[in-house]
What does this fold into?
Amino acid sequence: MILLSLNHAFAQTTTPKELSGQILKNDICNETQFPVANAFDNNNNTYFRACAQTGNWIGLDLGKKHVLTEIVFGPRMDADYRDRLQLGIFEGANQPDFGDAVALYIIPGLTERTLNKQPIFSSKAFRYVRFVFPTPQQSGKSSYISELKFYGYESEGDDTLLPQITNLPTVNIHTVNAQDIVSKEEYIKGIITVVYDNGTKTYTDSLDIRGRGNNSWTHPKKPYRLKLANSTHLLGLPAKAKNWTLINSYGDKTLMRNMLAFDFSRRLEMPYTSPAEAVDVVLNGDYKGTYQLCDQIDVRKNRVDIDELDMNSGYTGYLIEIDAYSYTEPKRFTSKTYNIPVTIKYPDEDEILPLHEAEIAAHFENFAASVNAPNYTDPVNGFRKYTDLESFLRHFLVGEFSGNTDTYWSVYLSKRVNDDKFYFSPVWDFDLGFENDWRTYSITERSNQSNEWISMWTSTSAAGNTKSLVSRVLSDKGVQEQLRRVYSVYRDKNKISKDVLTAVVDSFANLLATSQELNFKRWPIMNTKVHENPVIHGSYAAEVSNVRNYIRSRIDWLDKKVNYIPGATHLQQPFNDLNILVRNSANTLYISQIPQGSHVKVFDMFGVLRAGATNQSELSVLLSSGVYVITVEHDGVVYTRKYSM
It folds into this structure.
């Protein structure tokens, strides 16, 4: 549990005392043999029984606001019932229905048979306090509490400090009348309070919440979509938005696979990568486990930053998804070439016009057809006309590094106004990556035998014939060289070394240490195969070790696959007899005598693209002093030269 130091919020002259008030309860089974008064009678030998159903709670209306300093509670003491209070939540609120409640403390494990004392470090004052009994872990097993006492002092309090149930941010959500979330279509109204930065920051808002996901929605631990009343930088994250997601990671027993893949994406400088902040979720007083708070993938600044719909001109950028589940979506189409199902994500369903639907479907068809065409390698009229290769290759590498069996089951693409290219971003959904799918296990052994990209394996998933499209793009020799360059740049910069990436695993494991223990008490699946688990590793440490070992072997394999040579990032091929003239003057780089049909790019030594041109005989670009790399793709071959200014 997180322990916070006392600060100015606790400077007070009033001595804390035992608090009293009107007894409150939600007794689903209307207990008569062990009534709620037994929990407040100062007799350790009498009990309140919460029947073996979810939703039981008892508490007090204190009449006025009080700052809590301590909670005292006891289990049934005449037998070993101590584990039945495990994961119970203490909450404070200022609405009588506890709609604005926040978690004050979670019982992490076995309780003492005598009275348990728990200090509460909070500056916020509450009128209503309660204990929410945990969801029964065993059928027919009721929970008992012998005594419940709250200590504190009368005060208006302030919001300078609130408890978190672990070191992770605590996401408190309460729906109207504590309604359960049972639909992916219908929103339920509620209130959210997020406590973070060691309890020193909070965000509270009303919200609508519903389920989300496809296969992930079928799991007992549910994923959620949040729609806040107001746009905000939730947890201080980059995008200011109303829509957010809580990812459940039920089948990922490390609880970090998405976080690892997103970290790798950021290391490759993808155009946009969603944050994935580990949080604890408490819904209607019920601890739901460890989640990742992520962006809802939508169009806005600091997410998919493309041209938004102009209702006057009709001009708009597009966000689409190659989507094996597109048949469930209202706005969709399927390409004739490669039979690829596509969902239109933006413009939104209630704003998109028929001309937009027709336009994006036609443009995607042109893209697919350009890949399938006889002249597909042509730098001007081939697939490069419609493909941003930099994002395509980075997206591909994230999938290959992670061993994601669903890389081409779902792919987000965006298109800007007056730009024919599709941009592949962001990456998404890695629960089955990092050796977590029986259909591809063991990736390490099978890769060493076949030396084939996992994306192309028959045992991996894809929407339509997307694999065939990707395979054809990769067959271009120029693309292979560019893939090697992209990978090598980040290897040379030590962004994706084995030691660096396994250190990331260890840092996430340390971050999740306390929360994961609670998560797997709530969802005791560590010794059970769930979803597509190939192996039962038996402990959290063993699960993490499996991922760590996989990453080290995968980097070794990728090094061999792309023929990575340390320090030789851009030296694939000299200019030879192309007779291209390169010079500089007044901080301007001039490239001339470029062969017809060539594609020219200028990179700095960090691998950042500084300029590019297709089918131009000359190129000039303003640059500061330094070393640059010029690549010229001509007739399917990439020629490279370093140049100092």
